[in-house]
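Tokens for chain A. Residues wanted.
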């Protein structure tokens, strides 16, 4: 729970889409924000025959395309920046299988979001606020993998900065980290999850006061173990080098 509370924010877009409506939200930690929850205007099945059936089919297809366009536009407005880059760490999609398949295969999922899609599709019957919670729960393991990957990337950046990388500077140990905090030079403060809760909270406040962020590093992977055993679980990626 502590790691979830103070680890760097992971923002996961959530989309539930089915024939009758769609819901869009975002997951940050364990909190879900609902951005959109509306029914669609796509007509249901019909019993007409002959030319009437063809006319109804065309109308239903036009309504579906308009509905998909509307959902795509909302995704673009919410989760894609002016440089056509995703503003989220991933997107999870659920809904009825046929509708999800059509939405994705027909190109309605914006490319920047398609590139950060997590998992496959998750079966959700009805699109509403509660369905976003069910979607996040179903995709829990896949979402946690995203957080673990970011931990690895941060730990790797820290290690790289220790070897005088031209684009990354790092330091470690309580004394040097405190000095970097005093200078306002800490971009990301790394603390091992093995430190005490009080110690982590103290560092969290210090780094946030100087405009940085904190990353809690587990020892579930090799760099995390090395960070704890070799650096006593305290280090920092710096904005600039200090003496």
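Reply:
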């Amino acid at each position: 729970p502590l790691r979830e509370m103070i680890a760097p924010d992971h923002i996961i877009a959530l989309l539930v889409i089915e024939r009758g409506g769609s819901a869009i939200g975002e997951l940050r930690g364990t909190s879900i924000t609902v951005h959109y929850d509306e029914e669609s205007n796509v007509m249901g099945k019909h019993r007409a025959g002959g030319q009437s059936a063809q006319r109804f089919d065309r109308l239903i297809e036009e309504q579906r395309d308009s509905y998909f366009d509307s959902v795509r536009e909302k995704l673009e407005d919410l989760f894609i920046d002016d440089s056509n880059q995703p503003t989220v760490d991933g997107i999870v999609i659920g809904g009825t299988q046929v509708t999800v398949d059509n939405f994705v295969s027909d190109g309605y999922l914006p490319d920047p979001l398609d590139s950060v899609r997590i998992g496959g599709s998750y079966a959700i019957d009805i699109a509403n606020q509660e369905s976003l919670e069910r979607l996040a729960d179903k995709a829990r393991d896949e979402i946690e993998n995203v957080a673990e990957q970011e931990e690895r990337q941060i730990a790797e950046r820290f290690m790289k900065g220790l070897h005088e990388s031209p684009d990354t500077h790092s330091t470690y140990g309580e004394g040097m980290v405190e000095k970097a905090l005093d200078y306002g030079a800490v971009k990301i403060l790394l603390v091992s999850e093995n430190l005490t809760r009080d110690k982590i909270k103290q560092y969290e406040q210090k780094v946030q006061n100087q405009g940085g962020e904190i990353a809690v590093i587990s020892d579930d992977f090799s760099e995390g173990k090395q960070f704890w055993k070799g650096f006593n679980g305290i280090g920092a990626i710096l904005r600039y080098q200090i003496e």
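DSSP finds nine helices and nine strands in the chain. The chain has a mean pLDDT of 87.
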